[in-house]
Amino acid sequence: MSQETPAFRELTDPALERYSRQVLYEKIGVEGQRKLAASRVVLIGCGALGTVLANTLVRAGVGFMRICDRDYIERNNLQRQVLFDEDDIVANLPKAEAAAAKLARINSDVTVEPVVVDVNHVNIERLAEGADVLLDGTDNFETRFLINDLAVKTRRPWIYGAVISATGLCLTIIPYDTPCLRCVFEEAPPPEMNPTCDTVGVLASAVNLVASLQAVETIKLLTGRHAEINRHLVHIDAWSGRFVNMNVQSAYEKGDCPCCKRGRFPYLSGESASTTTTLCGRDTVQVNIAVPTTISFPAIAEKLKPVAAGPIHYNRFMLKATVDEYELTLFPDGRAIIKGTSDADKARTLYARYFGA
Amino acid sequence: MCRPAQQQTMQVTINSKVETLDGDMSVADLLARRKIEPIRVAVEINEDLVPRKTFAERMIRDGDRIEIVTFVGGG
Asked: Could you report the per-residue pLDDT of A94-144, keeping only the tens digit for each?
């Protein structure tokens, strides 16, 4: 009888019981579940893909997840960003904090560490420390190439995932074994060429499909089943139901990749880093500052009072004010998100005018 | 058998859709006609990845099964 097997007895162990349906799956089992519990992942970006990834992997029982995100929650996120709700918007919560609070209620066995931060070449090594797998939940090419640089340089697996409209891509990258992102797509297309979630939209179904593919690849890596990863570039179209598995192995074997063949990591060195980023999906620019600082919100609020249209809100995570047609959000490290423009120079000017010394 | 030179049409499959192409055409020509920037795509023909550097040399042949996958940055 199966009820007499050691595997079954282990499943009645209260710590494993919640995972029983996953443990019963032959590729995971008790051993796989234990490996998951000992694993550490770092999620970069907690928007559409990121929330689905975090939700799936925390429910699956990874041991530790660090969630890095620079953004706050907006109403138009709720259509697809599964960990957030209307209360989070009222509370003005950053995505990383709101996600961690929700995940703690879902599975308190998992250690979730939220970090409200813009992941960049200065901090990525520290943020990625100890990760068995790096997860892509970002919304731009630059941060993906930065993750790719770090992953290849430190020989750490990462899972690329991206979505737009009803379509998406997923690629599992094991440096020096499978092609890296730059083997397949050597350069980021110029911004004017790229449709964004703002111009062509995005369906939650496409997000869920891609993030589910990313999650299962992550679980294979975390349970030691490297040989079973999908080595193809997967393209999905949620609307038509069409899936393509493109064999890209030759891009690594025969290619001349700047990262894995020529050992150049310009995104990680800062050579290709920008100080402003136009955020995907919105008429919004993020302004970074070279040296992180500590901002006093009460002092800034005082300064903004004469020019602000309406009340200035702040809590310990951020300050929000509206000036003219711009919505300004300032974070404690000095970073700001300026909504109402996609012009980087304009955003820098507004930053200097209202937050500058 | 020798035929006078004339423009031939080819039948190919692009992203699962059967399409007719006029005359000789490289991968680069095909992308240009469709206003697709080569930097944005990965192209596979008959399940073989076409290196980006060879887009101009790789001629499309009758019956080719072509996949064009666009680099995506949203998320």
From this structure: 999 999 999 999 999 999 999 999 899 999 999 999 999 999 999 888 899
| E strand intervals along B27-70 | 41-45, 48-50, 65-70
Residue A280 backbone zone (phi > 0: left; psi -120 to 50: alpha; other: beta): beta
- Show Cβ contacts of residue A4 under 8 Å, excluding neighbours closer than 6 positions: none
Q: How far apart are the first and last CA of chain A?
A: 74
CA–CA gap between residue A280 and residue A286 (Å, rounded): 11
Q: What is the 3-state secondary structure (H, E, C) of chain A?
A: CHHHCHHHHHHCCHHHHCCHHHHCCCCCHHHHHHHHHCCEEEEECCCHHHHHHHHHHHHHCCCEEEEEECCECCHHHCCCCCCCCHHHHHCCCEHHHHHHHHHHHHCCCCEEEEEECCCCCCCHHHHHCCCCEEEECCCCHHHHHHHHHHHHHCCCCEEEEEEEECEEEEEEECCCCCCCHHHHCCCCCCHHHCCCHHHHCECHHHHHHHHHHHHHHHHHHHCCCHHHCCCCEEEEECCCCEEEEECCHHHHHCCCCCCCCCCCCHHHHCCCCCCEEECCCCCEEEECCCCCCCCCHHHHHHHHCCCCCCCCEECCCCEEEEECCEEEEECCCCCEEEECCCCHHHHHHHHHHHCCC
Mean pLDDT calculated for residue range A300-305 = 86
Distance to chain A for B48, nearest Cα, Å: 7
Residue B73, chain A, CB below 8 Å: the answer is: yes
Angle at which helices A204-222 and A29-37 cross, to 10°: 100
A-contacting residues in B 5-64 (Cβ below 8 Å): 15-16, 37, 39-40, 42, 44, 47-49, 51-52
Task: Residue A188: list chain B partners with CB under 8 A.
Answer: 73
Query: Which residues of chain B make contact with A181, given a CB cutoff of 8 A?
Result: none
Residues A189 and A141: their CA atoms lie apart, in Å, by: 8
Domains and CATH numbers, chain B: 9-70 (3.10.20.30)
* Closest chain B CA to residue A210: B75
Locate the chain B residue with the closest alpha carbon to A197. B74
pLDDT in tens, B26-35: 999 999 999 9
Q: What's the predicted TM-score (pTM) here?
A: 0.84
